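Purpose: get a first structural picture of the assembly so the mutagenesis plan has something to point at.
Setup: two entries, given in the order below. No constraints added.
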Amino acid sequence: MDLKLKVWRQDNADDVGRFEEYQAHDISPDMSFLEMLDVVNEGLIGSGKEPIAFDSDCREGICGSCSMVINGTAHGGQKGTTACQLHMRHFSDGMTITIEPWRATAFPVHRDLVVDRTAFDRIQQKGGFISVRTGSVPDANAIPVPKDESDLAMDAAQCIGCGACVAACKNASAMLFVAAKISHLSLVPQGQPERERRALAMVKQMDDEGFGNCTVTGSCEAVCPKEISLDFIARMNREYGRALIKKGTI
Amino acid sequence: MNLDAKIPSGPMAQKWDKHQFDLKLVNPANKRKYEVIVVGSGLAGASAAATLAELGYNVKCFCFQDSPRRAHSIAAQGGINAAKNYQNDGDSVHRLFYDTVKGGDYRSREANVHRLAQVSVNIIDQCAAQGVPFAREYGGLLANRSFGGAQVSRTFYARGQTGQQLLLGAYSSLSRQIGLGKVQMFPRTEMLDVVLVDGHAKGIVVRDMVSGEISRHSAHAVVLATGGYGNAFFLSTNAMGSNVTASFRAYKRGAAFANPCYTQIHPTCIPVSGEHQSKLTLMSESLRNDGRVWVPKSQAVAEKIRKGELKASDVAEGDRDYYLERKYPSFGNLVPRDVASRNAKEACDEGRGVVGSGLGVYLDFEDAIKRLGEGAVRERYGNLFDMYEKITGSNAYQNPMTIFPAVHYTMGGLWVDYNLMSNVPGLYVVGEANFSDHGANRLGASALMQGLADGYFVLPYTIGQYLAEVGPDDRTDTNSAEFVGTEETVRAQIDKLLSIKGKRTPTSFHRELGQIMWDKCGMARSKAGLEAAIKKIPELRAEFWDNLNVPGENGSLNQSLEQAGRVADFLEFGELMCRDALQREESCGGHFREEHQTPEGEAKRDDENFSFVGAWEYKGENQTPELHKENLVYEEVKMTQRSYK
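Result (structure tokens, whole complex):
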């Protein structure tokens, strides 16, 4: 099939950026979306232009590198699917496809579709861990974890940190991402000693990074490639309130 | 070249304990005076960086991804082995050790493998304490499953995302140390050379991939945790960015490269769909626990399937050949990866492949669904079935999956001694980047184990010996001649790549190299094929340096430039792989030489002449590298012909 692409091009963080149009010819339905972009890029280099910069690494939906808004939807709108796992069989001949980077103050653009998501790492550094030194641990089976709690923790823990939730949110809120981590660690017994500190510290860093607030529209859940439930945001709010009370702040 | 493996004396089961006691310690108050560079942030790199920082060392950690959490360990699906014997099914440290040596086809170093089996139990404890949500039973205890090639259930897992969860565990420990200021993290930063001072590794030169800035970093020791080189084949299950550059540049500075021909071809990957293919996707081999591998008995039926005239369900039970169950009745579909891969190739070579290209076999869950119900199958493999459907558009609950082998893991790597130090003093290599533990073939669920063993429990001990010996004052100013000179070399290569302005893209060279490697140095290798490759690759390399087109400049984010540098190294490294495959006149593990097989078509080892590690020394540009040998001595495990019949 043949497609028309409208792609966001921006040389660096200071550049204002603009859309440019390209043609994509002879696209096979078996190609992934990123393979389609590879083909376009090979053509651009051939005609003396610079290729479209975009992040991708594992190309199997787990590393969370790929980050693009496709026709207005983060990762392109196939349920539970990253851009790298989106295949061209979901598009049809003659379509125009608009491709943009994640847009959020806390995710400045490096170039074209490549953005800076180190804000997520800084949130993790404030409390997204259980403080255990290597070696200073009991036998693994000395800490039984009920299966349903462990399974629920896993539902949250499978977040890939891609940032689609932020890109989809009208407030550029990172609540789903932060909620996933806080929920995972507050659900398991190992995470209890730091439960309150973690909730307070991660939420504070999230706010300091310039992410917006949650108004529960659920757009994050709708685009999340791991289908992480909005329920975790409710859980995070509860964890945060609980921490405030326990710490005597309110 | 000195290839002293420094294996401790004493009985096998006591070597590591004894060695830990014999190793020098660094005084706690002195640890903060040392700096260690860790390159790579996968399981091995992140666990090493976090643990070294916990011990009190100052760590600089570098990764090319935008976050350390994205290293390709994240994509490992199936699980991690540990000799916990929680299932009471006869597992032990000795059995895991034995299975790993046997599975590696007697080409690994016994003492290293034994240590790996020993510390495997600590890894599970460590990860559970970090809150890794491993699969559990209703009683709250950890669940296990058996996994490719093992007859005990010793594999721990977190759905089909074990690598992700273990990496996020290591990343959480790393993040904690970054927050505490003990690790300085450099994401989107690529190592382009290692700096040697008086023969010791004392730093690295890196490129900031956003600004293009080249900078020099010094330390008391350098740890490479930079993963494998499977992308030499262009198509592999590795991530797009996985590359050999850090290891290869260390090799060019004098580090020996061991067993580069040992490549693991994973039997259960999604077949290639066309010319545009940018990478291949693995379906965890845990699927082989319940899936049955088959092709039609007759070529005629297979041909009808390929043409779309017949479906899998149209083929009667009696017309199907469950060839693994037929040929290997005791292991059946769970034979090791190399055996499963070669048999798939053989079935397709016989014209019995079931996808359009002819290169694919069935992995069928019909019986498992009948036996367990679709719900139970969904519980075990749901995410894998979903992934399969996303990529192929086909529902594997209704139709069998189609699979074909693909390059997945590389057992070879930089040569290291028992302390994980290369032959370059101060240069340590951990995880997939080194060569030591898997011999000629890695067992399933052992890569995660080795990465974390090296990073959490081995390197943090062994590096102390070197650091104590050199002392805290042994640091070189980054303005020294060695650092400045190395940076000049790096800049010269970047300038050269940008100046050619020819006609071909880095990808087109990479793809062509990959085709040569797959054809000549893939699942089956021959003298004639390898010699042809050794002739062709330098020609392609010459064209690369003459006709490459890298658009843009160095001073900004330039993905073509990053890729060109990596392809340049693969173009030299691919030749080294072929040379190693050519010298190894035997078949062992993932290395199958057509000239060396039994009458039944099984791999035929030559223990008398090839029971050694082949370690290559760089001799200069376009010079033939020199082969050195570390002889492998087996004290504990008796070498036998592997049999999975």
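The mean pLDDT of chain B is 96.
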